[in-house]
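Progress against Task 2.4 (sequence-to-structure conversion) is shown through the following example record, which the project officer requested during the mid-term review.
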Amino acid sequence: MIAAALLALLGIGLLATGTPRQAGLLFGDRLYRRRRVLLRRAGFGLLAVSLGIALRDPDRARHLIAWIGTIGVEALVVALALTWQTTPRA
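Structure tokens generated for the chain above:
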């Protein structure tokens, strides 16, 4: 489950940086639409691999619920980190 959680965290990070708003705040105009799409696809791919790893164990229902909870917490952490990083300081 740890490998699944780490892959999911990376996938969520790629999804977040692939959005137009966050890409603009993090990279400026250097990240074009095609690369943002590639980041989002890679993020979804990593999430799919992460789910596959999480569901390899015999107790699939419990691991599915744990995986959903884990990606929820990870998404919150990534959102807070990106908000904190891109918030202008006074």
